[in-house]
Amino acid sequence: MDGGDRVEDDDRADGESISRLLRAWRARIDARTVPELRYTQPRPGRRLSQAQAARLTGVSEGWYRALEAGRRQDFSESFLLRVAKALRLSEAETLTLFLAVCGRRPPGDPAGAQKDLPHGVKALLEQQVSYPAYLSDGGWNVVASNSLMGEWFPWVLRPAPNLMRWALLHPEAREQMLDWEDSCARTYLAMLRVAANSAPADTELRALVREILDADADCRRIWAQEHDVVEHRDGHVFRLRLPYHGNAEIRVTTHVLLPIQRPDLRFVFITPMDGWAGV
């Protein structure tokens, strides 16, 4: 093996697939093209070795070797991200590394909401003319919406629209969402509880929870008294009274989809019930 690389017995166990991938990814790196290795001794050969990969990721050779061998260790997200950078992994390869090693997706890109929407996702949103629809990120920031969503809910046209801030803190939400406490507040706070525990390192999400609890006494009371958890609102039924419908009461349900091209976003449709056809 080049550079003293070793294949451990554990490579035959359940880590075999990721072990082979890691070796293949490392083998395609020409160590002579890595700036951080330019002045090291001994001078790097063509193939990146395990020792050099360990050097690039800031760990011991034994720790890196354990990763390549497929041994179960407490590998941190920061280490795996350094491995992805050192081995010049693509987005799909980085996802594969994380799912194989720790069973979860890589931490979200802080600039994810700024990425261009895939053409197909944007076209589907814009061409939806029957019902309101919008895209939101993991922090419930609305990153895009169709024209009907803006007519039903003008708040999405305001700067930096956020579903949780509007639904839980804005006075008009309590007028427009009937049974606000039981149908809206308890559900949304239960969703925030799941999200906060799923991503404890997400400072933006933690700040959103703190902002809502600091700003509203009803939300603080519900948060303290309730222990329910809700992952999403797919299929949830709301009763609304909106100016767009002349303040007539309507019942709607939400449908939550995850675009395969942007799994960090939620694609939400709002459809009327009871045969209502006033769009």
From TrEMBL:
Protein name as catalogued: Helix-turn-helix transcriptional regulator
Gene3D superfamilies per record: 3.30.450.180, lambda repressor-like DNA-binding domains (1.10.260.40)
Pfam family, one: MLTR_LBD
InterPro entries reported for this sequence: Cro/C1-type_HTH (IPR001387), Lambda_DNA-bd_dom_sf (IPR010982), MLTR_LBD (IPR041413)
Segments forming domain HTH cro/C1-type: 46-95
